[in-house]
Design a protein that fits this description.
The chain is an all-alpha fold. It has one domain. Helix content is 55%, strand content 0%. It has helices at residues 3-16, 26-30, 35-47, 66-72, 82-101. It is globular.
């Protein structure tokens, strides 16, 4: 999936209020399939100020390891908990990065 296609899917996720599959994270919902796009996504994860330090589980949890939080979460996108809110923050960050890469940034 190209960065353009990922951006479209991410914008849809934000507009809908939930991803297509709400029991998995961003990578599974984006299903890139292209190594170059996966590299872009990994670089974006690493650039996010709240990056957990684990590329496979980029979203931090306040009390658990990123892997434990992801594997044990029934609602990784829940806005009522810090872990879910962090995931939404990462989505917004990725949207901004993708728009900047594609020259579609917001106009002030």
């Amino acid at each position: 999936m190209s960065v353009e296609a990922m951006l479209e899917k991410m914008l849809s996720m934000r507009a809908d209020g939930y991803p297509e599959c709400a029991v998995v994270g961003l990578c599974s919902n984006l299903s890139t399939g292209y190594y170059a796009d996966e590299l872009w996504l990994q670089e974006a994860f690493r650039a996010w100020p709240k990056f957990s330090g684990e590329i496979q589980y980029p979203v931090p949890h306040p009390t658990q390891s990123p892997e434990q939080a992801y594997l044990g979460s029934c609602d990784p996108w829940g806005r009522e908990n810090e872990y879910g809110r962090n995931r939404w923050e990462l989505l917004d960050f990725l949207i901004e990065r993708a728009q900047a890469k594609l020259g579609q940034g917001r106009q002030a």
